[in-house]
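Box 3.1 A note on notation
Throughout this textbook, protein chains are presented in two layers. The first layer is the amino acid sequence; the second is a token string describing backbone geometry. Keep the layers aligned when reading.
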Amino acid sequence: MFAVPPRGPIRAVNLADVRQAARRRLPRVLFDMIDGGSEGEATLRANDSQFCQFELRPRQAMPSKPTLHTRLFGDSLSMPILLAPCGAACFVHPGGELAMARAAAAVGTAYVVPHVSGHALEDVRAAAPNAPAWYQLYKLGGQAVSEAALDRAAAAGFTTLVLTVDNHGPVRERDVRNGLPALLSGRPLAMLPHIPQLLARPRWLYRYLRTKNLQLSPNIMVNGRPMTPREMAMSNSEPASRFSWKDVSRIRARWKGTLVVKSILSREDAREAVDRGADGVIVSNHGGRGLDHSPATMTVLPEVVSAVAPHATILLDGGIRRASDVIKAIALGAKAVLVGRPAMFGLSFGEAGVRQVLEILRLDLSRTLEALGCASLSDLSPASVTRR
């Protein structure tokens, strides 16, 4: 039996093929911005490799047609895979977050709209009005700036808020080598040495130059205008622009919907988040883009599950590249997973590319569950996997 890949703009059988297609389509600085991690990228590599430390344990002679539907905080999803909040999507494709939202809605899942977005949060919500409404929040610019965005998200109809609480700061060395800070500076002399890599991708460059009113974040407003890339970089280095546990309590009191805390990597922080009123937590190391040599997400998932389940819903973010990764995470206690880099690579081909990524995962997930002898996601348990 041959696997028939879903139709789409990318010649791809799996997500590795999508990544290679994006490498050929995007300027090096942009591809590496998505693909890279911080410092030596040890955590980035560990996120992927840790999935291989677990084996699936199939049950034979149990034919089934699996169902992938799941409910998450009251939202009905076609599968337990969400699109993660990835900033600066508008640089990958002009459709940016609008395309991501429409693609997620088309396949019946959720997109966590990033705070650092090229499109206003109200416009992204309007692009997929019937889809689950998730919004991610940073504290860039301080408490007043983040609270203004929080209130806008509530007014626009978002029902689930994702607070990213990890500490930023580690250097992403690929970005420095490729001149990303210089290209975002807007200073012609600083940008000039890095222009050839943009010229090497004329299709992308033509599309970028045709895009009008491109902003990095209309959702982070300071004195009535969007915060500039330079201001964001400076703000990001300030402790006042990072969430504290007191902030989580304050936002819990202000936000009436579901609250999820992202970037949990220990049982202690998982308990703290739930004690502060979180309805769920996301086990995440920022895709290996935060503190290098922090633990891989699959390494700490079991301890987070033992600490707060079933009192809180647990999700996992980082390193998902195949359906078997999704199944292993769910078997060990995650309710769903988030996918970031593969979706951004698909976005280089527009909305249809993102949808193709999700369809690849959905078909793969159905086939793998069937081979595992499971009729539904609820059949998965720690007995479904074993550590090598």
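The two ends are 29 Å apart (CA to CA). The longest strand covers residues 258-264.
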